[in-house]
Amino acid sequence: MFFASDNAGMAHPEVMQALLDANTGFAMPYGADAIMAEVTSKIRTIFEAPEAVVHLVATGTAANSLILACLARPFDTIFCSDVAHIHEDECNAPEFYTGGAKLTLIPTTDGKMSPQFLGSAIRGEGNRGVHGPQRGPISITQLTEAGTIYSLDEIAAITGLAKSYGLKTHMDGARFANAIAALGCTPAEMTWRVGVKALSFGGTKNGLLGVEAAIFFDPSDAAEFELRRKRGAHLFSKNRFLAAQMLAYLTDNLWLSSATSANENTAYLAEGLAKAGAEFVGPVDANILFASLPRAAHQKLKEAGAVYHIMVGDLDGENPEEPLIARFVCDWSISHEMIDQFLDIFRT
């Protein structure tokens, strides 16, 4: 009964097999291997972007930070949501890799920032000459840390605003596949066609051991990436083992089917929780949900071995009926049997 994070799930068997298949003979290092060339070709096809520049790194933090370092100057500010991963969970890596660019935080509703608040923040910066930060890129997370999804129109509104100020938009797509599966759109429709310039295309949360793709839809934006990746110690010598994972991910739409399974598992969990009387905090758009359960229910579930994070409230408080808000995340590998076991304990 593990609902703490999709980071904790298993690697997909097809990915493991791809690693074994790649572990034969010799291959040129540092991304000059034949598997990497095939990965680039497949990503260009999937994204309908024949000129896209593709590089692989092992972590989402590296993908986000290195991309932003290519888009932001040291004296810029990067505009992002107040719950963005680059703000809350990356130990100032974007500031480090950009050489000092700061983050300007935009208030959010259900994890999403609005053009209204973003526009206000942009207007508030870049107008003090040498005394203040200059306006830099916008970073948007899809799906958000609150588990919500920007519609295509919402993304277009943000990127359109950015463009009106001459700014570029980066998308943190750690759960990009889950958003695509939920919206039913194409990768192109959710990225470059609505104005996204660069994407961190996630795989680790969706069945890979540890690979993320940095994708630049305008090659000119990628000019520094290889140098920054090497200088930042994220260039793998045996790149073929990163590429093999990503190739398996892209083959036969494994990336999309795995995300679809994760979303369906979450919907199944949500249905059961709703029938048992749980209340949800925010919408359930993809593979993350936030629910309010009585403290006694949490205590019972935790004692039975359920693993998840309580976000608001103290598990050891006195009132058994006090509601505590928890986050539940499903990945592709969680079974309905596991979910049923969890629900049975909650209902009893």
Description of the molecule:
There is one protein chain. The radius of gyration is 21 Å and the shape is globular. The two termini are 16 Å apart. A hairpin with a 2-residue loop joins strand 4 (108-109) and strand 5. The protein is of the alpha/beta class and 348 residues long. The strands form three sheets. It has a seven-stranded mixed sheet, with helices on both faces. Strands 10-11-13-12 form a four-stranded antiparallel sheet. The chain has a two-stranded antiparallel ribbon with strand order 4-5. Helix 8 crosses helix 11 (254-275) and helix 11 packs parallel to helix 13 (336-347). It has 13 helices and 13 strands.
Helices and strands in order, then pairings?
Elements: H1 13-22, H2 34-46, E1 53-57, H3 60-71, E2 76-81, H4 85-88, H5 93-97, E3 102-106, E4 108-109, E5 112-113, H6 115-124, E6 134-141, H7 152-164, E7 169-173, H8 176-183, E8 198-202, E9 212-216, H9 225-231, H10 240-250, H11 254-275, E10 279-280, E11 288-294, H12 295-303, E12 309-312, E13 323-329, H13 336-347
Parallel strand pairs: 2-3, 2-6, 6-7, 7-8
Antiparallel strand pairs: 1-9, 4-5, 8-9, 10-11, 11-13, 12-13
